């Protein structure tokens, strides 16, 4: 079958060097953009069916970002891929040193269900720009989106260049044991470990975009009204099914009541009394994820929200108090619209506590104190984040996106994807017009004196 032989087929195509041509890459990027545009309405409809995403949210968080990324590479690919000259030590005079960027070969891109369009095609765009062939595996949990993506990829590109495969876990495991040149995986930490284990059988390099418990800190100097609005926005995007959503809030004791009041009022204002009946509010992807989240509602004390509807798989944004690090809701990433809120008095104590937790994918700090800002940024390790906002850093393709430690390895977006999916081939070109005898035997005392002068 084609899907079982696709890696070998694409490697043979890659060896023809067609994909290395910059004009070819630009042409394929334009082809992808045109294909997305032709099927844009279908994608939006499919996102609504699978996740109940509104047209605005689908365009803002999925499709629009892809157009922006494609245009970035079309405009900048010649500059990014250009041979880069670097300095050479005096020891090697006369010579020149430079870096060439070559495609890795055949890349396997595996995407999750929460942003099924963006998280499959965003790494593909950078991989096309880098000159690779690509095998794509969308999530089967969003089947209507996968239907449209299959049309976009397999009808507009040669199979030997870009091919979308669909199948169960068994097919995925079979492909993971193939000799890809790079695997790009976005998903949970548990599945990421499995992917890494199978990839290690062939020493295939990986980019892992995972997740974790991303904290949000609101200190006593913050603009509470703005903080409330931006926390609600970041947590209700895709009903909280976002790897960089604020997972919990640390709020200073002096402003906790005000923050709860502002969050509650703003949520009611924009969603109404029952979010589960709001037509533009996304749903939970399936029954098992819904049931997992409902069980977490038993944690702590509900301050706001708590309503849910099994018929349409919707859970309203919910603030939960009276939880700590011994609560099960704090064991792993919530990945839903439930937001634990924990008060603090001394920022030093919570920073010392967070230092000992796994490094998160994101961190958000609401403050007007430069002292607190510098302290938090200097003290904690995390993939990326925002000061006085949530989630927005992901949409800037000039910023590398990715995790650290258990929240992921490798960065992408913009030129970072190009570098992640390229091999840096380093070259030193030495002159043959002269050939200093310094490095050759015999190593006399005089030579060591010269070497010491050159290298201090």
From TrEMBL:
One of its GO terms (biological process) is aldehyde metabolic process. The keyword Oxidoreductase applies. The active site is at 209, 243. Keywords: NAD, Oxidoreductase. PROSITE patterns: ALDEHYDE_DEHYDR_GLU. GO terms for cellular component: cytoplasm. One of its GO terms (molecular function) is aldehyde dehydrogenase (NAD+) activity. InterPro entries: Ald_DH/histidinol_DH, Ald_DH_C, Ald_DH_CS_GLU, Ald_DH_N, Aldehyde_DH_dom, Aldehyde_DH_NAD(P). Residues 22-425 form the Aldehyde dehydrogenase domain. CDD domains: ALDH_YwdH-P39616 (cd07136). PANTHER family: ALDEHYDE DEHYDROGENASE, ALDEHYDE DEHYDROGENASE TYPE III, ISOFORM Q. Belongs to the aldehyde dehydrogenase family. This is Aldehyde dehydrogenase.
């Amino acid at each position: 079958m084609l899907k079982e032989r696709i890696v070998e087929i694409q490697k043979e195509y890659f060896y023809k060097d067609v994909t290395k041509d910059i004009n070819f890459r630009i042409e394929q990027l334009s082809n992808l953009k045109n294909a997305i545009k032709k099927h844009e309405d279908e994608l939006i409809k499919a996102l609504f069916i699978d996740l109940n995403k509104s047209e605005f949210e689908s365009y803002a968080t999925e499709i629009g970002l892809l157009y922006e990324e494609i245009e970035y590479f079309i405009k900048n690919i010649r500059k990014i891929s250009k041979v880069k000259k670097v300095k050479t030590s005096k020891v090697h005079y006369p010579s020149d040193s430079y870096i060439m960027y070559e495609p890795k070969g055949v890349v396997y891109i595996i995407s999750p269900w929460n942003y099924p369009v963006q998280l499959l095609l965003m790494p593909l765009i950078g991989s096309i720009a880098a000159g690779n062939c690509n095998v794509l595996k969308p999530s089967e949990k969003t089947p209507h989106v996968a239907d449209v993506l299959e049309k976009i990829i397999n009808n507009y590109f040669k199979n030997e260049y870009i091919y979308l495969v669909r199948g169960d876990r068994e097919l995925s495991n079979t492909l993971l044991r193939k000799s890809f040149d790079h695997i790009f995986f976005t998903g949970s930490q548990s599945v990421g470990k499995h992917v890494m284990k199978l990839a290690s059988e062939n020493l295939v390099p990986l980019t892992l975009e995972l997740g974790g418990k991303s904290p949000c800190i609101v200190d006593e100097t913050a603009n509470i009204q703005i903080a409330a609005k931006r926390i609600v926005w970041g947590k209700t995007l895709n009903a909280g099914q976002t790897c960089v959503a604020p997972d919990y809030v640390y709020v200073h004791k002096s402003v906790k009541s005000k923050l709860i009041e502002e969050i509650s009022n703003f949520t009611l204002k924009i969603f109404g009394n029952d979010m589960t009946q709001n037509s533009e509010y996304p749903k939970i992807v399936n029954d098992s994820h819904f049931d997992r989240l409902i069980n977490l509602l038993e944690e702590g004390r509900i301050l706001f929200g708590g309503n849910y509807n099994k018929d349409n798989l919707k859970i309203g944004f919910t603030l939960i108090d009276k939880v700590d690090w011994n609560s099960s809701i704090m064991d792993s990433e919530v990945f839903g619209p439930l937001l634990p809120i924990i008060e603090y008095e001394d920022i030093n104590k919570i920073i010392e506590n967070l230092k000992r937790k796994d490094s998160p994918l994101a961190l958000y700090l609401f403050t007007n104190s430069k002292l607190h800002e510098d302290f938090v940024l200097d003290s904690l390790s995390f993939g990326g984040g925002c000061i006085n906002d949530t989630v927005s850093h992901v949409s800037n393709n000039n910023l590398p996106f990715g995790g650290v430690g258990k929240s992921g390895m490798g960065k992408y977006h913009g030129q970072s994807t190009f570098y992640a999916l390229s091999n840096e081939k380093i070259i030193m070109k030495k002159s043959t017009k002269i050939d200093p005898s310094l490095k050759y035997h015999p190593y006399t005392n005089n030579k060591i004196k010269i070497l010491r002068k050159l290298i201090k």
